[in-house]
Design goal:
32% of the residues lie in helices and 14% in strands. By secondary structure, the protein is of the alpha/beta class. The longest helix is centred in the N-terminal third of the chain and has 20 residues.
Length: 146
C-alpha cells in the first residue's frame, strides 16, 4: 500500500527575495548616476517697492562680485574681503542697512547661499535675495527679503 504524502501549503519566498535584492542593487547604483538639471527659479508676479537705500551685492555668472552702495548707484567690482569691509563702513553710516544679493541665474545655489551665510555671519541682519517680476525681466528692482 502506498503512503500518500501530505501536500505542503507553504510558499517558497526565496526567489522573490533574490529578485528584490537585485532590483535594490540596481536602483542604488543608478541613483548615483542620475544628473540633476538646473532649477529655473520662479519669478514673482508683483513686488513691493524696495528701499532705495539698500546696498546691492551683485554676483556675476563668472563668479566676480560687485557692490552697489544703493540700488541706483553704479556697481564697483570688489574682492570678498573688500566687499565686507565696504559693507561694514556703510553699516557704520546707516545702522539699519539692508543688503540685497542680486545673483545671475547661472550662479550656483551654493555660491549664493555662501554669500548669504558670510553676510549674516558678519552681522548683517537684513539680508535678502533679488527676484524679478514677469518672465525673466532684467529691469526688475531688487527686493530685500527679511
Amino acid at each position: 500500500m502506498a503512503r500518500r504524502r501530505a501536500l505542503m501549503s507553504q510558499m517558497n519566498v526565496v526567489p522573490y527575495i533574490d529578485v528584490m535584492l537585485v532590483l535594490l542593487v540596481i536602483f542604488m547604483v543608478t541613483a548615483q548616476m542620475i544628473q540633476l538639471g538646473e532649477v529655473q527659479l520662479p519669478s514673482v508676479a508683483q513686488l513691493p517697492a524696495p528701499t532705495s537705500e539698500a546696498a546691492v551685492v551683485v554676483i556675476h555668472a563668472d563668479g566676480s562680485i560687485g557692490l552697489k552702495k544703493t540700488a541706483t548707484a553704479p556697481e564697483v567690482a570688489m574682492e570678498p574681503l573688500a566687499l565686507l569691509r565696504a559693507l561694514r563702513a556703510l553699516q557704520a553710516e546707516r545702522p539699519d542697512l539692508a543688503v540685497v544679493i542680486a545673483a545671475d541665474r547661472r550662479v550656483t545655489y551654493e555660491t549664493v547661499m555662501g554669500m548669504l551665510d558670510r553676510l549674516r555671519g558678519a552681522g548683517f541682519a537684513r539680508v535678502g535675495l533679488q527676484t524679478s517680476t514677469g518672465e525673466g525681466r532684467k529691469d526688475a528692482a531688487p527686493r530685500p527679503a527679511s
